[in-house]
Please model this.
Amino acid sequence: MPFRTLPTALACAATLLTAGLLQTPAGALTPDVDTAALPTRVEAARTTGVLSLRPALSQPGKRPTTSSSRTQALAVFRHTSTGRTVALQREDGAGWRTVGRARQHRSGSTLFTLPDTTGHYRAVVLSRSGSVSATTNTVRGRAFTTLFKDEFSGTRVDTSKWSDQPTLAPAYMRMCSTLSRRVRTVGDGVLNLGVAPDPTRADRPCTWELNGNSGSHPYMWNTQLYTGGKFDFTYGYAAARIKMHLDKGMHTSFWLQPSDWYTPGQPAKGTEIDVVEFFGRTSRDSTIGSFVHWYDTANEHHKLGGLFPHANTLKKAAETWSSAYHVFSVEWTKDAYVFRVDGREFFRETQVVSRAPEYLLLSMLTSDYELEKLTPATMRQRAKVDWVRVWSH
Model:
């Protein structure tokens, strides 16, 4: 993205992919802007922030809605104060004109939607008197090309885009589950993902062993849709607007897998990218997870990422992930995966990055280790997918 009149120090910081939030599994949320490269004093109109552009990755809300083609911008300043007024400004012939105002989020960032993609924009911090006390770099507006879109607006799955995956893989942790199209439906603008007891094997229980644990449970039907053979991509933004199920016993997933499967020891030829996984509420709050899976030269499995309880600060405090829709996304480049909730970053992974085509998956699964927490009431719960969209980078 072009920058104009940008100080050299800030230009270094602005080369970061996004301005948002970064968290490691064991760490706290911290700005991912290199704040050490920014000026340490805030003076009138001093450049102390970064403005970055991305597709419409923020769309929280209680009800289904249509995905947006508009461009969004995120402003992050070195010095933060929750609730202060930040303005989006567009340059015209007479100078800078304010085209939007918003309060700074408790994460320290402020999100805007550009009114158009033809002009130059910046974000500024406004003092109580209305004067500009800090500003970001200047960016030129741009549009993002849509590569894939499904709004689930009909009454059935669009088979030109999705297929029901015929088998579970890997199956070693889901010995008691098979996939069935009978536990997913489309209606009222959403895809409903569910699980149910398998009536074809109701006459006998399933026994399982995993990591030194064992148990028995009725056989289950699970849901898994994928775009393999119909759509894949390399690099870009993959996003899904989802309202999660509530309780433990099953997990909702939006993820990517390599089209040519895995090459042991060569993650550049494909990794599993779990954009979001949700395993149900805990006693304190809901927690989402994001993971990257790969195999070494001995074909041993490795997992990066984890659960991110601090991502809960990116939703309203009174909400759970099952009480409202949120957009879960990954920005995939040749050097990194950047995971976000509603446009704000909570995790970034750079160690093993796929550079091969990958396809999309949506699933509701009951792994063997979850079955002891699965009750008849839990089985009736559904995750709701409002839309899925992929944009080029």
The first strand starts at residue 3 and ends at 4.
